[in-house]
Amino acid sequence: xxxxxxxxxxxxxxxxxxxxxxxxxxxxxxxxxxxxxxxxxxxxxxxxxxxxxxxxxxxxxxxxxxxxxxxxxxxxxxxxxxxxxxxxxxxxxxxxx
Length: 97
Fold this sequence. Notes:
The protein has 97 residues and is of the alpha/beta class. It is 42% helix and 20% strand.
């Protein structure tokens, strides 16, 4: 059985490097995208087994990408793991408004 292919979409190089090392160490094939447009371009070329998606991406946000994926019949069933530090950053500065 071939290793699962993961598309890792995150614009934080340090976080993406660490995630990629961990995923490759677990035997996964990893492709990276640093912004929302790159995510869509990658999905057009090859659909991964899983998309790990940051919500805050340059050029096109993760929420818009997720919406597009769920509306596209060829991508609708793609598993998407959503990760974001947005809430953690807000929590450290006090309650949400």
